[in-house]
User: Which sequence fits this backbone?
């Protein structure tokens, strides 16, 4: 996995998780859903990069 893509995936995961947690704590369902979506995007990006790495070897 390239370093920049790994960093981007981790950043999306962390940002999404914190936004989801904050939204839940505040009772803001929209913010929680947006955070969950961002986290899922980061998870998908990480999975894509891991798959690419698996096929390189």
Assistant:
């Amino acid at each position: 996995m390239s370093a920049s893509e790994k960093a981007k995936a981790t950043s999306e995961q962390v940002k999404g998780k914190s936004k989801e947690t904050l939204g839940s704590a505040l009772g803001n369902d929209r913010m929680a859903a947006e955070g969950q979506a961002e986290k899922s995007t980061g998870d998908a990006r990480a999975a894509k990069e891991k798959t690419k790495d698996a096929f390189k070897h």
User: Anything to note?
Assistant: The longest helix spans residues 29-56.
